[in-house]
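Appendix C reproduces, verbatim, an entry submitted by the partner laboratory led by Prof. M.T., so that reviewers can inspect both the input and the predicted structure.
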Amino acid sequence: MIQKIYDIGQIPKRTGIEERFMYPFSQINYLLNGGCFNGVTLITSSSDNGKTTIASQIICYIIQQGYKACCFFGEDTPYETQERLFKQSLYGEERNLKYVPYVANGKETNCGEWVLSDDAWQKSKEKFEGKLFLYNTRASASVDDILEGFEEARTKHNCKVFLLDNVDQFQFSTENENKAIKDIIVKIRDYAINNKVAIFLIAHIRKTEREVILPDMFDVKGTSSLVNIAKNVLIIVRTDKIDHNSKEYKSLKKLLEFNNYDLDQADCLIRVAKTKGRKIGFACLKYNRKCNTYYDLKKIDENREESEKAQVVTPPELIPITEQGDIFGDLEY
């Protein structure tokens, strides 16, 4: 029988710092203070802003550190998942990829794909085999069944990292969607904490009545329990989806300059909106289309030291007042 209460003095003194994994992006590592095996990290964005790509890249990087993972990619075929991860594992080895144009009626079209060579495919297979396990999308997508699959991966294969892509894929039989999602999220959080594992959870940003180019965590689709149970909330924004001539973009550019980045040079922006790590803040990334991989954008001043006390939210003078209200969401100063 599990002891319901215990004296705090029963807890032994910890002799070292908590085990953690590293993210593939240095600024995210700094802001989150690495990744610990004790909770949920929520990755969110509007549709088609790179959630799955970045989540896959994080999993790929963690596996390279010697950990094992199990993932549920609810919107992908097995081949799509494999191809994305295999390409990402070859970042820096683009010579192993070749562009193959699509041929129609005997003529090459302007469509095509970057394809792995046979040797590159085999090399990537060896990197992941026995280390990355996929939850079968033909199986039930109820949270209990998915967590049962994760438990098999944890106990039989020693997996310590899990990915759920995405919240909309969950199956439940009730008309009260908010309560059902809340119950699901609580189960996922409890599983992560009780088993000392890291779980990445992907969710969409809901459509808002105001024009928002930099969503807040309260714009996440569904119940507030999604952000409440997460230890970290990462919001992704693809900069090519923003009108660079708009007042909103220019204000965002000033904000990122304040955080040591030139937004004009970025392909992607990650906003750390919540963390149990060091602080909230921003990271800017570039994109390698061949390998479907993001990498760190150089800061404006590489020698500038990061400050624990540095402001990372929009200063009041940079907030444009529009009929829709604050475009950056409900930020605190």
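Residues 21-296 form a domain with the Rossmann fold fold (CATH 3.40.50.300). Additional entries are available on request from the coordinating office.
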